[in-house]
Write a structure and sequence with these properties.
89 residues, alpha+beta, 3-stranded antiparallel β-sheet, 3 strands, 28% strand
Length: 89
């Protein structure tokens, strides 16, 4: 049986002076809320290009979200099998 599923990730970006913070979150169909955070800090000597800070902070938040989702998956596998689970990264 094949199926197409759709998961949505919400990304919020906050900028405060030379710091950009990103928060990426999703709720899985099983009801797990998973959130990743990322930060970018502009060197004061670099030109002010907000898009670059946004990209970097969001990339870091998505990477952190992926790691946390893998951890959630390991816990789900362990719960289903009764065995410790360690996924390859």
């Amino acid at each position: 049986m094949s199926a197409t599923k759709h998961w949505s990730i919400t990304v919020d970006i906050d900028e405060l002076e030379d710091t950009t913070l990103a928060n990426a979150s999703l709720t899985t169909p099983a009801g797990h809320d998973v959130t990743g955070i990322g930060q970018a800090q502009r060197n004061p000597l670099d030109p002010n290009v907000p898009e670059i800070g946004d990209e970097l902070a969001v990339a870091r938040a998505l990477r952190n979200l992926a790691e946390r989702l893998l951890h959630t998956t390991e816990k789900d596998i362990s719960g289903a099998t009764g065995e410790p689970a360690h996924l390859h990264r």
